[in-house]
Specification:
Blueprint: H1 2-16, E1 21-24, E2 36-40, E3 43-53, E4 56-58, E5 69-71, H2 78-96, E6 104-110, H3 117-124, E7 128-129, E8 135-136, H4 140-148, H5 151-154, E9 157-162, H6 177-186, H7 190-199, E10 206-211, H8 217-223, E11 229-232
Parallel strand pairs: 3-6, 6-9, 10-11
Antiparallel strand pairs: 1-2, 2-3, 4-5, 7-8, 9-10
Helix pairs in contact: 2-3, 2-4
């Protein structure tokens, strides 16, 4: 599908900006291979599985030929959708890298405004604070499913890249903690940051999540992480 080709090229360009060469994995067998091998200075550095998040598509006979109506289905909420993509990615990465000798990376590209990095954070268990200021996931069932299936032991690192267009009339941007940290870090003002976010430039809207169980933390931080790196914590 066109989105698949475009997202693979976007992934290649994204890593290239970080000095990493992403080579497409040849699909020559029925083995569950990841999408990319990642190289630094010619040396194999990590494996990467790409997962695109796109709106559901429904062809309608009432639409002009070739047009597509995009719809969201209530039967498949964001958390289930993202959790399944992580599970599928873990299977592919584990199949090819069973001894876990190199880092495993899941690279999300989000194409819909009905999904966001908050959905991913809820699924993987990045702490949120409740009224008692106790860090906790609101819906631990999703993280627990990944733990039961050992998926979070397979995945070392998750990148979530926003790649959808801001539509005319969309409500004003509210800066989150990431953007506020970025303002302090760069010395820019809020107006400038909001303009950057509106453009949805991949380099400015990528979020990085490093699992605390990973044996490759130093290498991943040094070669990929940005200001937006978060280390995941374990929940009982």
């Amino acid at each position: 599908m066109p989105e698949d080709r475009q997202d693979k090229q976007l992934t290649i360009e994204y890593f290239k900006e970080k000095g990493i060469e992403a080579r497409l994995f040849p699909k020559t067998s029925d083995m569950l291979n990841p999408d990319f091998k990642l190289y630094i200075d010619g040396d194999l550095f990590a494996y990467c599985e790409l997962k695109s998040i796109i709106p559901y598509e429904l062809l309608s006979s009432n639409l002009p030929s070739g047009q597509i109506c995009q719809v969201e289905l209530n039967g498949d909420p964001a958390f289930n959708n993202i959790q399944k993509k992580i599970h599928d990615a873990a299977k592919q990465l584990k199949s090819f890298n069973p001894c876990h000798n190199l880092p495993n990376i899941v690279f999300f590209i989000n194409h819909t405004r009905h999904r966001n990095v908050g959905d991913l954070k809820e699924v993987i268990g990045v702490p949120l604070s409740n009224v008692s200021d106790i860090p906790c996931p609101l819906y631990p069932i999703y993280r627990n499913r990944l733990l039961i299936k050992d998926d979070l032991l397979v995945v070392d690192y998750i990148i979530f890249l926003e790649s959808h267009e801001k539509q005319e009339g969309e409500e004003a941007i509210v800066l989150d903690d990431y953007a506020k940290d970025f303002i302090k870090y760069t010395g820019k003002d809020e107006k400038w940051v909001k303009e950057v976010i509106c453009k949805h430039s991949p380099s400015d809207t990528a979020y990085y999540f490093l699992l605390s169980e990973s044996h490759f933390q130093d290498s991943l931080k040094e070669n990929i992480s940005s200001k937006y790196c978060e280390i995941l914590t374990n929940f009982a």
